[in-house]
Every structure is written in C-alpha cells, then in structure tokens.
Amino acid sequence: MLEQFGEHAGFIAAAYVITFIVIGGLILWVRIDGKAQMRELEAMKRRGLRRRAEAKD
Amino acid sequence: MSALSALFARELKLAVRIGGGALMAVVFFLIVVTLMPFAVGPDLNLLARVGPAILWVGALLANLLALDRLFQADQEDGSLDLMVMAPVPLELIVTVKALAYWVTTGLPLAIAAPLFGMMLNMPSEALGAVCLTLAAGTPGLTFIGIIGAALTVALRRGGLLLAILVIPLMVPVLIFGILATSAAVVVTSPFIQPFLILVALSLGAMVLGPIAAAAALRFGLE
Amino acid sequence: MSPPQKPAFSGLELIGDGLACVRGGRRVFQGLSFRVAGASALALRGPNGVGKSSLLRLLAGLVPVERGTLTLSGGKPDTPIAEQAHYLGHLDALKPGLSVEENLTFWAQFLSGGPVRPERIDAALDAVGLIDLASLPARFLSAGQRRRLALARLVAVTRPVWLLDEPTSALDTEGQDRLFSLIADHLKAGGIALAATHVDLPFTVETLNLAPAAMELRA
Amino acid sequence: MGLMDLANPTRFMAVSQRILPWMWGLAVAFLAAGLYMSFFLAPQDYQQGNTVRIMFIHVPAAWLAMMGYSIIALSSIGTLVWRHPLADVSARAAAPIGAAFTFIALVTGSLWGKPMWGAWWVWDARLTSVLVLFLMYLGLIALWRAFDDPARGARIVAVLALVGAINLPIIKFSVEWWNTLHQPASVFRMGGPTIHPALLWPLMVMAFGATLLFLAIHLAAMRNEVLRRRVRAMQITAARGVATAGAEDGEPELA
C-alpha cells in the first residue's frame, strides 16, 4: 500500500503518523484530565461528610 | 540512603509541578537556536559549520537558567536549615539536588539537541555527537554551577551574579565539548581525545562541586 | 489521643557551659551557661534582640559555637546534637506545590532516614488537626495551618530535643492548646524542650532569662 | 461578580455537554472523508509528486495554528474588557491545542521540505514565522503555569497575548524582509498561489474537519478548565472550613 505513493512514501507516512500521535495524545490528555477533575470534584464533595481517618477504619 | 532517595523524589516532583522547570530550559534553548540564523543569516552551509558552537552555547546558557533557585528556594522557606541538620552529610544532599537538577534540565537539553541540530542542517553523525557530548558535559556544567548557586544563596539578586561567577569556570567544559562535537563535522579533528577530557572534567566537577558548594552553604548560614 | 511514643528517653541532660555566639560580626552573648534535665522544659526569656533565636540556632548547629561547650548526655553517642534535635524556626519549610501529606512524608523520611509508615503520618496530622486537609496542596493553607503542619514534623519523627522558636506564633487558641499538649507528651516521654516564647507555658518550666545589659557589658 | 458570572459557566457546562458528541461525530466524519479524498481521489502534483499529500495536513495545521492564536487574542479582549471568567478559560484551553497544531505544522513542513530541499529544515520566511508563533505559544503557556491563582494570572496573560497579536504581523514582515535579503529567489513556495482544483477540494474538506476537531478539543478542554477551577474553589473553602470547624467544636479529647 505504501509503495504506490512513490519514493517519498516514508515521508508521507511519517507526517501522517506523527500527526495522529500528536492529535491522539491531545485527545487522550483532554479525556484523562477531564476524568481526573471529575474524580477530584467527587472526592471534595464526599470529604465534607466523612473524615479520612474514619474512612480508613 | 532513604533520606537521599526521598529528597531526589521531592526535587523531581517540584521540578515537574512548579511551572514545568524541565520544559522551560528546553524552550530557552530553542529560542537561542532560533535567534542565531537571524543573526548570521539562513545560509545552511554556514549554519552547519557553526552548529556545534550554537548548540553548546545555547545549552550552557539554558542550563544556568534555573540554577539560582536551586538552594535559594530552600533557604527562603527554611528547608535548608533542616537539611543542614540532617544525619546525611551536606555534600551528599547537595549532590542529590544537583543530580535531580541535571535530570530535569541537562538531560532534556541533551535529548532535544539533535532535533535542534537538524534545524541547523548538521550532518547526522554530528547529531549523535552533540547528543553524546552534551549528555557527558552537562553534568559538569551543573556541578560547576551549583558552586555559584551556593555562593549566592543569601543574595536577593543572585541570578546575574551567579552567571558572572560560574561561566568563566565552565570554559574548559565548553572548549572540549565543542571540540569533540566538531570532530563529526570537520574530518581532520579527532573525537575520542577531547571527549575523554570532557568526561574527566565532568567527573572532576562532580567531586569538587559538592564539596565547594556544601562549604559555601555552611558559611552562608546564620 | 496522644501520638505513640515508643522509645522513651531516659537520663537525658543538655548542658551548655560558657557559650558565646557571634553573628554578623556582633557578639550576641557570651559566658552563657545552662542545664536542662530530661522530662523538663526550659523557657528562654528576654527582650527582642537578646539572642534567644541565636541560642536555639546555635543548639541546632546552624550557627557555629564561638566559645564554650555543649553536651547532650544520655543521647546517642558520637552524634551531633543537631541530629538529635528538632528545630521549629520562624519558617515552616513547606513547599506550596506539594500536598499537606507529601510535605510531611518527605520531612519524616528525610529526617528519620528510612521509610515511614503512612499511619504514623496520619497520626501526626491528626495530632495537629490537619487530617482532613491531607490531600490539599499546601499553598491553600493559612499561616496558622502551615505552622501546625510544621509542628506535625516533630510528632512524626522522634527526637529527644525540641528547639522551639516562638512556637505559638500564628496559632489560634485551639492550636496553642494542641501545641502545649504535644510538648507535655514529649516531656512525659522523657524528652527535653527549649522554647523562646513570650507566652506562659501551662506547665512547670525552668526559665533562662537573657538580660541585654549584662551582654553589652561583657561585649 | 455574583449570580450572572456564576450562572454563565453553569449554563456553559450544560450546553457544551449536549453539543460535544455532535462535534466529535462531525469532525470524525469530515476527517474520514477528507483522508479518503486526499489519498485516493487527489492526483499527484506534476512538480512535487506524491509528497503533495503532506499538504493536506500541513496547510490545515498551519491555518489552525493561526486560528488558535486568534481565539486566544479574542478571548483576551473578553478578559480585559468584560472580565468574563469564561473568556480566560477559553484562552487558556486554546493555548496547548494551538501549540500542538503549530508543532504539527512545523514537523509536517519539515517532512515535506526534506525531499524538496534536501534539508530537514530551511530557514524560509513561512516556516520561521510559524516557529516564532510556536515560541509565543510556549511563552503564554509558561506564564499561565507560573501563576498559582488563575484569576490573578488571567489579565496579565491577556496583556501578553494581545501584545503578541499586535507583534505577529510585524514579526512576519521582519522575517520576510530578513529572508529576501539573504535568499533573493525562492525556488519553491509551499501551497503556492495557484492550486489545482482536484487538490483544492480534499484540502477544503480536511481543513473543515480539522477545524471542527480543534473546536471539539477546545470545548472539552474548556470544560476541564471550568471543573479544575471548581475543584480549586472547593479546596480553598475546605482549608478555611476546617480551621473554623476545629475551633468551634474544640476537639474535647485534646483539651
């Protein structure tokens, strides 16, 4: 499949692969960050009710 | 040893969390590399010839960037007092702090250098050489730099003074670093000899630097 | 609830004899002698600038001893006093970017030189009333809360001598009560405490009065 | 201050949650169509051969690099003039995304140029301007990160962003001047003025899809930023709350 794009197929492939990695990383970061903030928010809401020391027992 | 590993972990954590210290030095490095073509012109042959010099000077300056805060931050919030009181010798504490600084500053510079070398049209052998020489030479720069950081710890505006104090001391490292790197660009110059001297300079700095820095910190206390 | 105190200290005595201190070219005091036995506290008193902080820093090994001798009998042999003492100075030695728990865990590991069990950290945070804020970055703490966190360090790592420089500053009444009960526990375990303070401590202490006039005269 | 400002982020969270899935879907659909067109329908360029296919990501990335900075600049006006908290949230969320697309433009430009010029990097006017733009993005991000309190940092960073926006044309002009001084004739210009219609359509579809993708990521990042600020506000109240609660109930076991 690569060969049909001629002698510079490697450059084309590299350009697309790097782009996918960067954008994929960006989307992944947004998702992970969003989940982390949600978790923090939930933890903060819970903490008002229970103390950490008691939660451990 | 656990006290030292705890310190190392804390230093890394702080470097990553506060303003992304590791990234800043690399960005500064990139800015220095970007400025050079504006100054000497975009001629690729010329840039390839002066490439090693640009990279080494850029890395040297970038490595100085956050050095003045290395002990000052701990001195301002009282952490340094507690470190002096620790059962661990101050020389080892200083060494660990310097190593953490190198991991978050010098090492990223060495890793980024080949990429910036590509922008200066350096041949691929020279890219490997610049990465290797910077990896071997930046510890030397850091361990010389910590002496200045310890000397200026009590001064409010120590940053500029620090640069003036330590850059002359860094000249030998710079000379042999560039010599070894140029070997890959200029065929006639040998690589291994200046490289070994560079390694020796770094190792020497790793012994001398912590001793001098710890002494300076002790005198600077009160 | 009082923090666990497994190794009770016995037969401690801190003796200073003919101490002199020079800071910034100025002779702060000289010919200073004192004696504190285990399980007792010494309150350092006197007007500002008389050398209370200097004496504590001298004991902590942060200021060189100009003249005189300083011995801790009954402690670990061949170990400087600084390594057997806690120093609670004006600065809290906290990093705003680390959480309350991370700050304390670091100092506990660093000062004890070994791994520290999380229960011990929790107990120390509980003793100063910060357990609910364990995961909060230290930058959100008020001055009094920072002070409490610094105090938790003394609870988390056991050391025979406590050097306290104005320990009550920035603390509210509740925080002061906690501080006093922690000091009382430390003394009960046989430890020594030296405190430079203007507040009357609610338990029996000996007092070392540093008088400026005498100092000037001798200097 | 007050209800208006509190109400707006809340409504923003509700609305954005509903439109985000549609934006993701549309972006993926357009990008899939664009990729198909650029790989299988678009012909080779008579001069550049197959490497012209790099253009289909390079040109949209370069366009989005500029759009990202425009979003930051416009949001900064919002921050400075109306002091709207969402304006700062928008600017702050756009910065890393814009920087990422600028990075893509630089890397793909380099990969496109290597077969043409025989060098990984040529200090031509366009690439160099994009590099300076990249540095400005990094500066903005670094300044934001240097502030503990986002509210305090907002207006200061907004000033830098606007100064940068005013400076960008000057930088572009100077770089072009510098470049023509040293290199009188440019042999090859990226995405030159005349472009074959068979190449234009895939490019348009790709650019539209990439813009949608940018906006979707931007919206998602804005939501994260709003959440982050809520967490922060709750942490501050938690720190204060414990201090007063502790004093009130007096902790009998210790007294």
Describe this structure as you would to a colleague:
The complex is a heterotetramer of chains A (57), B (222), C (219) and D (255). Chain B is an all-alpha fold and 222 residues long. Chain B has 9 helices and no strands. Chain B has helices spanning 2-17, 21-40, 44-64, 69-76, 79-84, 90-119, 124-151, 158-182, 192-220. Chain C has one domain: Rossmann fold (3-Layer(aba) Sandwich). Chain C has helices at residues 52-59, 100-112, 118-127, 143-156, 173-188, 212-218; strands at 13-23, 26-37, 40-45, 67-73, 85-88, 161-165, 192-196, 206-209. With 255 residues, chain D is mostly helical. Chain D has one domain. Helices cover 81% and strands 0% of the residues of chain D. Chain D is built from 6 helices and no strands. Chain D has helices at residues 3-41, 55-81, 85-117, 125-146, 150-182, 197-249. The radius of gyration of chain D is 23 Å and the shape is globular.
Low-confidence stretches of chain B: none
The unreliable regions of chain A are: 49-57
The general outline of chain B is elongated
Distance between the termini of chain B: 27 Å
Q: Round the mean pLDDT of chain A to the nearest integer and report it.
A: 77
Q: What's the order of the H and E elements of chain A?
A: HH
Number of strands of chain A: 0
Greatest chain-chain interface?
A-D, 29 and 33 residues
Strands of chain B, total number: 0
Radius of gyration of chain B: 18 Å
Question: Strand fraction band of chain A?
Answer: under 5%
Major sheet characteristics of chain B: none
The total count of helices of chain B amounts to: 9
Count every helix of chain A, treating DSSP H or I runs of 4 or more residues as helices.
2
- What is the subunit organization of this protein? heterotetramer
